Amino acid sequence: MERTKGKKRTGCFLYERGDYSSTERLFRRALVIDPSNTLVLGEYGSLLAANNPQRSIGMFAKALAIDPTNRSEGEKDQAEALLRRSLKCHPADAESLTNLAAFLACQRQEYDEARSLYEKAERVQPDHVPTLCDFACLLKDELHDMEEASELFERALQLAPSHVPSLRGFAELKIAQARDRRDVEDAKDLLKRALRSSPNDADTLACLGGVLRESDNSREVAGLMLDKAIKIQPDHVASLCHKASLLRALKLVPNHLEAMLGRANILAIPPAGLPNATVQNEYQEAAKIFDKDGKVSMHGMMDEVVKSRFQKSAKIFERALSLAPDYVPALCGYGKVLCQLDDREGSERVLRKALRIDPHDWRTLANYGVMLVRMLGDTLNGEKMLKDAVRHAPEHAKAELQALKSQVLQQGEEKLSDLHKTAERIRWENRWKDADSINAPYDGRKFS
């Protein structure tokens, strides 16, 4: 970021001196380092306005298309009009096609039109790295075509091995598809390459910090990386989420899905798994409400704390699902918290929907298996679900999941055994309720 600012200042100085060719060269170098820097795009657009007005429009339009906070619909319409005007003047320009496609994907969620524009840009200029990278990100994040996205990232990195957005995007794809430790290590290598090219890139620092956070040996390093990302960009939502500053992240971007799910998952943890200070604070708040007529029920207060947490969690999951109805992590978490609220039918309905979308999501399989055993006593299907969850889980989660499976099935067998004993007792009592009658058969238990 500092390198970009330095080149921008030098470019402005040369521009004032009238050295236009050197100015343009510096602005180009600045955009290679940080393609989304709106200051550089604006200054470069001003430089091009006299000699190349259409490219100038494209620069200004790209600056407008980048999503600042609280952009009005009028500004979005203006940005789209400028981008389409630029494309009309240069219909075979890969950069104009890419800029319009990025705007439509990010601002309008018109993914089909964006895809057709990216494909056209790729045909026009097959070696245009920003097109390949942006197209791959669209396929990865919105269209879920991981195979084609992987091919595009590989092509982009063959053309530009140090292109930071491609390195980061390819790493995110590998993490999303990780089936073993090798995929995670490949992702780490890609992110380290990106940091060598751009050491102060907050997105890359946050991504690598998030990966390292999952490893017991690297949590301290992960914390340092996330702290650095937040220091570079204090309002960087991904870093705040990884650092668990979820309330701050939600304040910055109220509809940020990852922050919402993180907050909801924390609320869904029973008090036994929370720090004592957290439980104590919520316990005291509940006491103020629950203490009526000077009578306090310890059990009732704790139930109130737990129920209140679960209800808050359910509301956040509902809000997340209103924004993304088919988002599997949100469905999985919502199904789990409904199970904790004893809404068996709602939980089963939500978890089934998640499995229809992604039949191999190991978290959903695990939650469904636990629900079947604990709420329905269905150990047969519950065990099958839990086995599938272990099979599809990444390596680092298999041991913990195997322990959960053993614990849940043992509890299920004990519960089933108790149910069988109760049923047997009721059957015998009903059969021999007239045991004192002279006509009743001998009951050894009665006279033992």
Task: Write up this protein.
There is one protein chain. The protein is mainly α and 448 residues long. The protein has a domain of 163 residues: Serine Threonine Protein Phosphatase 5, Tetratricopeptide repeat (Alpha Horseshoe). 77% of the residues lie in helices and 0% in strands. Helix 2 runs antiparallel to helix 3 and helix 18 runs antiparallel to helix 19. The longest helix is centred in the last third of the chain and has 37 residues. The chain is elongated, with a radius of gyration of 29 Å. The chain starts with a helix and ends with a helix. The relative contact order is 0.03. The N terminus and C terminus are likely disordered.
Task: Give a topology summary.
Blueprint: H1 2-17, H2 20-33, H3 38-48, H4 53-65, H5 73-89, H6 94-108, H7 111-124, H8 129-143, H9 146-159, H10 164-176, H11 181-197, H12 202-213, H13 219-232, H14 237-242, H15 246-252, H16 257-267, H17 276-290, H18 298-323, H19 328-340, H20 344-357, H21 362-376, H22 379-392, H23 395-431, H24 444-447
Keywords: Repeat, TPR repeat
TPR repeats: 4-37
Pfam families: TPR_12
